Amino acid sequence: MNAAIRKLIFDRLAEAIPEPVTELNYGTPFELLVAVVLSAQATDKGVNKATAKLFPVANTPAAIFALGEDGLREYIKTIGLFNSKGKNIIALCQILLEKHGGEVPQTREALEALPGVGRKTANVVLNTAFGHPTIAVDTHIFRVANRTRIAPGKTVLEVEKKLERWVPKEHKQDAHHLLILHGRYTCIARKPRCGSCVISDLCEYPEKTADA
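Given the sequence above, the corresponding structure tokens read:
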């Protein structure tokens, strides 16, 4: 796949998805950070249900830290791995208060130093909260990148590095959400909806389905 085809793919995705934004509900960088930590191995819908109750009560590092693990657990117990996630969120709140004045840092290094925050979470926060052209490779993006051959790779990091090199500059900011939403609703895991896909003729997937 060459650069011209990649540009055409992203042009079409951008036209088909005019508002490429996260489906996690948040109002501040801190709310986004908490939501993304909670979203690991969980659905955005499930996280939104929990944070709809949590954030009106506590949506700052100080307020959530004051809840403690037991208090926080009551709000997030419907989410998978809630015990470990709750422990990490309380710990990261303490670090934000002690080292960052209660603010979410804007560097990858500082974000990845927080409990429960890996490279993918850091990339999401940098991109969505702070406008950095980072691409967090989740299961959807990994699948789409490999299936279409936009950026094939055997590891998440390999795919991320190729996307950083190959995504056209004008689409760098939105590429993360364009690919996630395309993977979530069209290029789905079991049976991709090739019949209704706007990039089907450009995609190099050999087993295209005919139905919409």
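The first helix runs from residue 3 to 16. Try to locate this feature in the token string yourself.
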